[in-house]
Amino acid sequence: MSRDDGSIHLSDYRPPAWRIPRVEIEFDLDADATEVTTRLRLEPDPAQPPAPLELDGEDLELLAIRVDGVELPPESYVLGERGLRIPDLDGACTLETRVRIRPSANTRLEGLYASRGALFTQCEAEGFRRIAFMLDRPDVMPVWDIVLRADRARYPVLLANGNPVGGGELPDGRHLARWHNPHATPPYLFAVVAGDFGCVQSEIVAADGRNVRLAVWAAHADVPRCRYALGAVERALRWDERRFGRVYDLDVFNVVAAQDFTMGAMENKGLNIFNARYVLADEETATDADYLGIESVIGHEYFHNWSGNRVTLRDWFQLSLKEGLTVFRDQEFTADLHSRAVKRIEDVRLLRARQFAEDAGSLAHPVRPPSYREINNFYTLTIYEKGAEIVRMLYTLLGEATFRAGMDLYFARNDGRAATVEDFLAAHAEASGRDLSQFARWYAQAGTPEIRIRDDYDAATGTYTLEIAQRTPPTPGQPDKHPLHMPLRFALYDEAGRRLRTAPRGAGGADQVELVATRHRLRFHGLSARPLPAFNQGFAAPVKLDFPYSPAQLGRLARCERDPFNRWDALQRLATGVLLERFEAHVEAQDGLSAALGALLDDPAQDPAFVAECLVLPDFDTLAESVQAIDVDSLLAARETLLDQLAFEHAERLRARYHALADAAAGGLDGAAMGARRLRNLCLALLTRLDREAALAQAQFEGARSMTDRLGALRCLVEADAQGRHAAMEAFAARHAGDDLVTDKWIALVAMRPDAGAQAEVRALLGSSHWTPTNPNRVRAVLGSFARANPTAFHAADGSGYALLAEQLPGLDAINPQVAARLLGAFESWRRLAGPRRERVRETLDGLQGRFASSDCRDLLARLLG
Ligand code: PHE
Ligand code: ZN
């Protein structure tokens, strides 16, 4: 499979020579030494050339090996670092292996590991091979019988994939549980959980009449905080029935919260395992953003049951086939349940700040990479978010009904199979009768396309012309790019802000054209004046748009454009132009922005959540994506100056709005109350800039009745470096002592403190009892917040912020390579840093050479420096 340099290539794909239709796997669970007995039903695939059996296996202590019940002599197999090779198997047989593994020593959190007295598995992408010898690849899809044996007192709850099919008592205080997973399921979706948990549960009748028991499990003390997650499961199940016609296919659906978990959550068949932060919530501990995050991740993992599990992946190159599609599905879930406009704005904000940076940096890769060294390094914003954007474009190009027909065909045709991106596109091509071959380039070509549009109005003939050109910049390994197939929506407005109905020639009367060539020209006739054009409504194509809008035009667009996303985007564009001093009439532009925001604040008809989105200026990462060379100091300074100015100019309105929203903000978890709290906390943040005493923030902190308001106020106090901030931090810490998830929140606030002092505080945290490097959430709270969300301190001009992060990485790598590799990714844009910073990063990265043990960090470091 892998080449001499350790790389794996899409073009080398071969189907497995052996098939494994059934697996029986038995666990004698124990935190220090678990024994796993696995019986694989092996059958040579007659369609493939015969080959020796090569099973994956890592860190397994082999205790016994039998073929059809007969002990295999040592000379008949070869045991290596990466697995087990049996050269002379005759034909179909049952291979039994018994191995010992050590969960309590497993800090990588891949395979079977111990966490807070319980046992969990994590198998995606290649963790199953740390549990048993197996063809550990997604195109091997057995039906599973799972037996769990464990001490009853310590592990009263024993869960696995599929349906429970019995259990009972064993001698010596042990007990047993049997599970059967009837659906063809690859090993990366295997899961086992054992521990002392409680749950909340409900019964639901699925659309096909099946009774399904839904349960959310957590440590007993946390069970009251599982209610919201359970409701989210019910909403997800119903939504997938309604919107995609997908029905749940087992008798139980279990979700378990784990405090130690590397990623967000995992869609194991019938047994989703979650990072506790995406399950546990109540008023005392969760912010509105936490609630929404929980609902969307619960949805995401639930939706994988079809997009990922029933239809799985042929190989890991197809990762976005499940992730991009499932992100698209969870985005739509949230949009249907809440505000579509706000959801789109937030998704695009993330895309621009983080995915565009990835696509423009040293780690850029296509949505379907042609090769990899370490698959763990490809769980990226490009695979997830850009992958979702590609699915969204397909949805836009085909329309709701045709897209749904394509999805139905995709699911029907590939059910129980390991599919490819080609299978996905073929289903949509067939359902729509369209040629999607050029569209497929989106999966192969890295980099964010730039759409440059120039217009011309000829008063004599009443003709308006748009010249449209597309270009994708070079990325590592891809110097030359081809034009992409994408939808381009547009609208024209007249002086009075009325939408012009004039259709361009060749667009079939539609307000959407399809770009396929490098250049296009659109011509509109019969216009009595130059119109105001608007493009890419809803951000239907994930591109950078270059059109020379004047500040006045952007101000008009922000008022008259029908599409709310574009209204928001006009203000972001205006703000970006002001921040980067791109307008000739700088003062006029700034005034225009200020006036527009003031008008929004004054307008009671506007959705507060939308107004809040408009008040949030482009962040550092987004600004960095809008410039060639990243001048950290001037970007940060420009933002601070503009925010101070806006606060000063609108102090009255902000105060009025803050108080007027008090009642609405006191409500529960409905959209109106959440929107009110969001806007109110933004008003507070601006007002606190004007007031060294931060009296309003102090008062909100003391009287807060929700975590959203308490944390919102605390953030203001910390950012303003207000007098009362220490006392408030201590009060907050004391109130939530012992709650790890809430402790992560205040730690993140400390690490994000926007001044040089943050470094000393982060160092103090690293030396305190709060520093638990084996817990990924805590590592992210301390170092992730610092490196990814505190540009002021991380990019300290002397390189001390880079050094702080780098010092920690080799140690973290030895504990959990995936966590370390993600932090190392914070350097992805280093080549574009202006001034001495670039050199400082280079020195820092050079100093890390040879210091990593894992393939994760080695691969990433090589790509960063490559
Ligand atoms: N597949 C998980 C998801 O939904 C993410 C994940 C990847 C979790 C790898 C664990 C390990 O998105
Ligand atoms: Zn996913």
Automatic annotation (TrEMBL):
GO terms for molecular function: alanyl aminopeptidase activity. Residues 552-865 form the Peptidase M1 alanyl aminopeptidase C-terminal domain. Residues 228-441 form the Peptidase M1 membrane alanine aminopeptidase domain. CDD domains: M1_APN. It is an enzyme of class 3 (hydrolase). Residues 447-547 form the Peptidase M1 alanyl aminopeptidase Ig-like fold domain. Pfam families: DUF3458, DUF3458_C, Peptidase_M1, Peptidase_M1_N. Its cofactor is Zn(2+). It catalyses: Release of an N-terminal amino acid, Xaa-|-Yaa- from a peptide, amide or arylamide. Xaa is preferably Ala, but may be most amino acids including Pro (slow action). When a terminal hydrophobic residue is followed by a prolyl residue, the two may be released as an intact Xaa-Pro dipeptide. Keywords: Aminopeptidase, Hydrolase, Metal-binding, Metalloprotease, Protease, Zinc. This is Aminopeptidase N. It comes from Coralloluteibacterium thermophilum.
